[in-house]
Amino acid sequence: MSTQSKIEKLLLHAARMLNSTLEYEELMKLVLELTMTAADAEAAMVYRISRRDEYARARLMKADGEDVKYFKLGKGEGLIGWVAEHREPVISNDLQADNRYCPHIEEHIDFSPRSALTIPLIGRGQMIGVVEALNKHDGGFDDDDLDTLVGLANQFAVAIDNANLYRAARREARERELLYNVSKTLSSTLDIDEVLKQIIHSIRQVVDCSAGGVFLINEENGDISTVYADGYDDLSDKFIQLKVGQGLIGWVAKSGEPVVVPDVTIDDRYITSNSNTLSEMVVPIKIGPRVIGVLNVESTHRNAYDSRSIDVVTAFASHAAVTIERAMMHERILKNKGLEEQLTIARHIQVTFLPENDPVHKGYDISGVNIPSGEVGGDYYDFISIVENQTGITIADVSGKGIPASLIMASYRASLIAEIRNNYGIRTICKKVNALLYESLERENYVTAFYGVLDSKNDIFTFSNCGHDQPILLRKDDTMELLQEGGMALGVIPEADYEERPISLRSGDILLMYTDGVTEAEAAGGEQYGTDRLIEILKNCRGQSAREIHQSIYKDVKEFASVDFTFDDLTMVVAKKL
After folding, report:
1. Which pick of 202, 314, 479, 569 has the fewest CB atoms within 10 Å?
2. How big is the CA angle at 115 (ends 114 and 118), to the nearest 5 degrees?
3. Fold of 189-325
């Protein structure tokens, strides 16, 4: 058989083998075996290089054994460092005389290599690693070996990229599963210790974390105290005595911004709490813009955290915020015997969930309002930033009133925001929120909701109506339609499917979302305000700003209702395309 035929046969065999698995470690073992076969070598090594790490991860395999040995080399060291920097393959048949060779590598591989064939691995234009054949069985490596291994290296790089994508997808799925489990626990208990324990435990499964803790701010005296912590050497007074602005935890508590420290030994803000810690990440726990505490994770490795780590831990911090707020509210309720005091607390919680400001989008005028009745209701609206030019808009009405309604509203808000962060489609978000609420609500309770995403760049609004009062879309030419596509109210049955529908918005179009407190206002004879009157007043004030429109509607509803009518909460969101 010709040399060309042997190479072609080897490349075909390699392609079949590399395509047989997406498991990362299994694939790397195949890369080592194929490298030794292709170059007739006594051993092979493969190095993975990451921009965020200061070292290269190495795997070694010998032809006379099946075990893979793992170790690390400093980035840029030795022959592999030269190949990675220059992106050029190298044949070196006298390593001991090659000034690029790094002798201390022999401490890791237990033999003295005499020759090496070293090839860069380049995936999608990026340097991802180096593969190296060591000690050819017969003589030295030649150009035929080089051509063969270069051909294989291209296949290696593609296979490693695919395995990395698969590993990332599995990691994201795991993160979503853990967030889902935390959401279920959050919805079913007011035991803050249990939920925070699960949050820290879950974080340790998806990010490099040797220690972690949740710390709360005492707004009266500025102290920062430990709520739950795990993995620290000694939770002594140094934590309890921290002030806002002190240490990394205090710095985040003051700034409200997350921080990642790749090496705590060179950061003056770090206060030693764990003798083995080398890197740390701290993210704020917020209720709206207000920082109520921080979530801290630490690692015994340098450069353990990146932007993806921040996103993951921030999602868990959002769950912690809701849990802490609910638990604090519950404790206050138990301490206060008077119903009036309980309602005041619940109303305060309800108000903290409402947006402080209207969103600003070029080409749009958007405004929302919640006008509370004397009793705490279950109305809710929000503007949720997703990505640039895309904002989630929701309006909801919880069955019941008072403390139970405010707790249900908290569960809906937490579930919705968690699922939005998972980047699901609208119909999937509604389906998952429904399942979470069904598990946590009593059977007589439910939530009607309307959720949509405004793409202000493309002038598209995509929505799903979950059993809510149908929003009114009034076109510039006075044609009108009710937005009804979606599904049933949330929390009624365990499995429910939802439709989603996109609509285009043009200059002069107005979208009005509202709760039944608007249309169910009654005149002296018992007649309700109704949808027809609402549409008529919307047409009459179409020339006004979004804020003026909902103010005009509220004024008209108040004038229509009888003087002794007990109002429900009135909640409206107006979006006007300019």
Report:
1. 479
2. 140
3. Beta-Lactamase (3.30.450)
